[in-house]
Structure formats: structure tokens, C-alpha cells
């Protein structure tokens, strides 16, 4: 096995996308490629075949490598629950909650698990593409680090540094990183890539040469901006926007409360040409023209329910339902639609209970046992095929379950619907990725038939990304640098 690591001068420089594209490119060359991210922080997670959860970006990278997602691809996942604390997931399993200071004290023990996953992953790989987290220049976090240079040193992996020219100051960010790193850490960097370039690459030729001279690192490529990246599942960016000049397409709104999770559920809607989809943020009212309002998942359901009420969305939802509008709740959003949510053990925050929105006749009690499983089934309203994954804590009961939303292949039912069918909720994430189910929902809103084949679109975009990278990055040199 060989490995090479990609770190950034900052967050959102394109590390995840670059690793996905390289994974597809090297897989297309016939290599067995595996993605690896020692530590990720995200509330967008994916369920793995081995019964755990990893960051959504690593699931996409596994798909790019045509590999089965594994908990070892992202051994430490942090899922923020507040401004100062997060749920800690290790090798796919929740081990507890920790404040930032408490987590820092855990990292020495976590390094053992990280290295274990790295070596297990490498047993079935020709090449492991490692992704760092945040910025390589956060030297205040170097002690005990498991995400960037700390891991690179422990695993003896060479590093490529990525800079983002779109945000400006790429020369300063790359050269500055070189100067704040220790001598040993800087020596571990074998080259750099400048990402998100727009315009004529010849105009930055002198800039690339200057960077190489100032840092002593090899220039491995100037990568033009890849516009089609917007068609791939997003891990950290809520990017749905609404164009007012729509020609009368149905409007779907998703309520982006503070602790929204798994908002990649709605990526297929973002690509749909037959509807308009938009995230609404606190302070923005639900438009009276909305055809469907979606309450997404949440990492802190009761806290987000309180935030929903504080912004007046509960009043807007009641008016929306009176007008005959549709409402869909997924996971935490489904729980909010019920009559009551109880958290006696403090699973998602302080113990307590909250009155729900009362739009579905169900109640939920949050429990310590987390359901993590991939499932297939059909919708109960029109028998449209649907697949996705469950990722939730809590047991939901009530007479509303007598009208389920989904029936799984194993005979289980999931979710609830109102008597008129306009309000529904379930625990199934990823359901809009199923073309037949998505078309059923959109036709119910009055939309015309859609030409979108979502899964094919994602794979075609990954192939285009790989070709884009092969054309602009010295991939042969990258392979030679891996060790």
C-alpha cells in the first residue's frame, strides 16, 4: 500500500472534492483506491455497510473509488450539538458527548484507533488518499493532533498542500503556512496545488514559479474551477437558492434551523428542473406560495424545535396547512411534527420534554440506542420504490402510525401520514435520491415529469471531475510521491 495526504491552507479549499476526483481518476487507471479522513466534523453523515456512520464526504469518495463505504474511512467523526460541544463517533459508533476542551484530552487515545483504521483500510488497497481537516497552519492545535500533521507524522505519509485562489491571497496563504510550520512538518510537504482558478492559466504561471521558489515545494498543478461540483452531494454547504423568475414551478422550502443535519437529503431537489427549492433561515418567513415545506433532520431536535417557534415558523406552518399545503418531516423533523418529544436521558441536550407541532398524531421518546441501517422499500401512497438509510435515536408511537409513509422490504413500516395525506413524516434519509419516489412527490405538487436520473448524474459528474483533474494536475507525479 502507498498513501499520500492532502491538507489545506484553510477550510473549504476543495480537499474533499479533490480527493473524490483523484479517487475516481486512479480507480479508472485500475488501482484499488481507498479514501481516508482521520477526523471529520460534520452533521451530514452516511450509514456504512458495516453498520456504522462516517462523514458524507467520505461516502462520496468511496463511491468515486467504486468501493464499499467503511467506518475505517473516517474513524473519528464529530457531530456538533452546540457551539462548544459535539457527539463523538469512533469507528462508526457513538462513544459519548464532549466539550471542545474535553475532546482535546481524548485525542491521544483516539490516535491508536485512527492508525488502526488506516492500516486496516490499507490491507485492501494499492493507494490510500488521505484528507486532512481545516487548516494545516493551526499550530496551536499541533500538540495531540490527529487530523493533519500529527497523523502524517505518526503514519509517515507525505503531504500535498492545497491553496484556494478564489478567496484571494493564495500566495500568502501557502507561503505563510510554510513559515508557521515546524521545520519537520514543512519538510513533510512534497508539493502544492492551487485550486479554484478562473481565467487564463498562463497569467498565473509566474505565481506558480514564485510559490515553488518561496516554499521549496513542487508545483503539482493549477486546477481551474470545476463548475459541475455543484451537482455533487454537499457536506458543509447549504446551497439551494431560489430564483424568483421561475415560470410558475412549484416551490419547495426546507427549514434550515440552527442544528440542521443531513441536509444533503435535498441535493436531488436542488438539481430538479421541474421545481424550485430553497433553504429558509431563521428570520425568513415561509412564503405563501410554497407547495411543500420540509422539516429536515436535526442534531438537537428539541433545541431546533424551540428555534423554529422563536422565528415564527410554527405559525407559518399552521397557515400553510390551512391553505392546503404539503408538509414533510424527516427524522428530527418528523419528531417535531408529532404531539410531544421527550428526552429523559439528555441524549441531545438537557433532559426534558417539549410540545410538538401537533400536525401528526405521534409522540417520540429519545433513547440511547441509535438505529443505523440501510433500507429499501416502497411508499405506502403509490408504491414507488425508495431506498435510503435510518440514522436516529428515539422511539415513535401513536395512532398516526396506522397510516405509515414507507413500508420496507423486511415488512417493517416507517412514518406516519395525516388523514388527508398532506402532512407526512418518516425516519428515512436519502429518499429523494430514488427517482421513482421523488417523481411521485413532485407530481403530487403539480410538477411535470422529470428527466433527472440522480444516481447516473452523480457518477457522470465524478467521471467529469476525474478527467478535469487528469488534465490539470500531474497525477503521475502524485503517484510517484506517494509512499
TrEMBL record:
Pathway: Cofactor biosynthesis; adenosylcobalamin biosynthesis
GO terms assigned for molecular function: ABC-type vitamin B12 transporter activity; catalytic activity
Stated name of the protein: Cobyric acid synthase
GO biological process, one term: cobalamin biosynthetic process
InterPro entries listed in its UniProt record: Class_I_gatase-like, CobQ/CobB/MinD/ParA_Nub-bd_dom, CobQ_GATase1, CobQ_synth, GATase_3, P-loop_NTPase
Family from the record: Belongs to the CobB/CobQ family. CobQ subfamily.
Matching Gene3D superfamilies: 3.40.50.880, P-loop containing nucleotide triphosphate hydrolases (3.40.50.300)
Gene, per the UniProt record: cobQ
UniProt function note: Catalyzes amidations at positions B, D, E, and G on adenosylcobyrinic A,C-diamide. NH(2) groups are provided by glutamine, and one molecule of ATP is hydrogenolyzed for each amidation.
Organism, as annotated: Hyphomicrobium nitrativorans NL23
Keywords linked to the UniProt accession: Cobalamin biosynthesis, Glutamine amidotransferase
Residue ranges occupied by any CobQ/CobB/MinD/ParA nucleotide binding domain in the UniProt entry: 4-236
Amino acid at each position: 500500500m502507498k498513501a499520500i495526504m492532502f491538507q489545506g491552507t484553510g477550510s473549504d479549499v476543495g480537499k474533499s472534492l479533490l480527493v473524490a476526483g483523484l479517487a475516481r481518476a486512479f480507480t479508472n487507471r485500475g488501482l484499488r483506491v481507498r479514501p481516508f479522513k482521520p477526523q471529520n466534523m460534520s452533521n451530514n453523515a452516511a450509514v456504512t455497510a458495516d453498520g456504522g456512520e462516517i462523514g458524507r464526504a467520505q461516502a462520496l469518495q468511496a463511491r468515486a473509488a467504486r468501493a464499499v463505504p467503511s467506518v475505517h474511512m473516517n474513524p473519528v467523526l464529530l457531530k456538533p450539538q452546540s457551539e462548544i460541544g459535539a457527539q463523538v463517533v469512533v469507528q462508526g459508533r457513538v462513544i459519548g458527548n464532549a466539550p471542545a476542551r474535553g475532546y482535546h484530552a481524548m485525542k491521544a487515545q483516539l490516535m491508536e484507533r485512527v492508525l488502526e483504521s488506516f492500516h486496516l483500510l490499507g490491507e485492501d488497497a494499492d493507494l490510500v488518499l488521505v484528507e486532512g481537516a481545516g487548516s494545516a497552519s493551526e499550530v496551536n492545535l499541533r500538540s495531540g493532533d490527529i487530523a493533519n500533521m500529527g497523523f502524517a507524522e505518526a503514519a509517515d505519509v507525505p503531504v500535498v498542500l492545497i491553496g484556494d485562489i478564489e478567496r484571494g491571497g493564495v500566495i500568502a496563504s501557502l507561503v505563510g503556512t510554510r513559515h508557521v510550520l515546524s521545520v519537520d512538518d514543512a519538510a513533510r510537504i512534497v508539493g502544492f496545488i492551487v485550486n479554484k482558478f478562473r481565467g487564463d492559466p498562463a497569467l498565473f504561471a509566474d505565481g506558480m514559479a514564485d510559490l515553488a521558489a518561496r516554499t521549496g515545494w513542487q508545483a503539482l498543478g493549477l486546477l481551474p474551477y470545476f463548475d459541475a461540483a455543484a451537482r455533487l452531494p454537499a457536506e458543509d454547504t447549504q446551497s439551494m437558492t431560489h430564483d424568483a423568475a421561475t415560470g410558475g414551478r412549484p416551490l419547495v422550502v426546507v427549514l434550515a434551523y440552527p442544528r440542521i443535519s443531513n441536509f444533503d437529503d435535498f441535493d436531488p431537489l436542488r438539481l430538479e428542473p421541474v421545481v424550485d427549492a430553497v433553504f429558509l433561515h431563521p428570520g425568513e418567513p415561509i412564503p405563501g406560495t410554497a407547495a411543500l415545506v420540509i422539516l429536515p433532520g436535526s442534531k438537537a431536535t428539541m433545541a431546533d424545535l424551540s428555534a423554529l417557534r422563536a422565528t415564527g415558523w410554527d405559525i407559518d406552518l399552521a397557515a400553510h396547512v390551512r391553505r392546503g399545503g404539503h408538509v414533510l418531516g424527516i427524522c428530527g423533523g418528523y419528531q417535531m411534527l408529532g404531539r410531544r418529544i421527550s428526552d429523559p436521558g439528555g441524549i441531545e441536550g438537557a433532559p426534558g420534554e417539549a410540545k410538538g407541532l401537533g400536525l401528526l398524531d405521534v409522540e417520540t421518546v429519545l433513547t440511547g440506542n441509535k438505529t443505523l441501517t440501510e433500507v429499501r422499500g416502497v411508499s405506502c401512497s403509490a408504491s414507488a420504490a425508495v431506498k435510503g438509510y435510518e440514522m436516529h435515536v428515539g422511539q415513535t408511537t401513536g395512532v398516526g402510525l396506522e397510516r405509515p409513509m414507507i413500508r420496507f422490504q423486511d415488512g417493517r413500516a416507517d412514518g406516519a401520514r395525516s388523514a388527508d395525506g398532506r402532512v407526512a413524516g418518516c425516519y428515512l434519509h436519502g429518499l429523494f435520491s430514488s427517482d421513482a419516489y421523488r417523481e411521485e412527490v413532485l407530481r403530487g405538487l403539480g410538477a411535470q415529469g422529470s428527466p433527472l436520473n440522480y444516481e447516473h448524474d452523480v457518477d457522470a459528474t465524478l467521471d467529469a471531475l476525474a478527467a478535469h483533474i487528469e488534465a490539470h494536475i500531474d497525477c503521475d507525479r502524485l503517484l510517484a510521491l506517494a509512499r
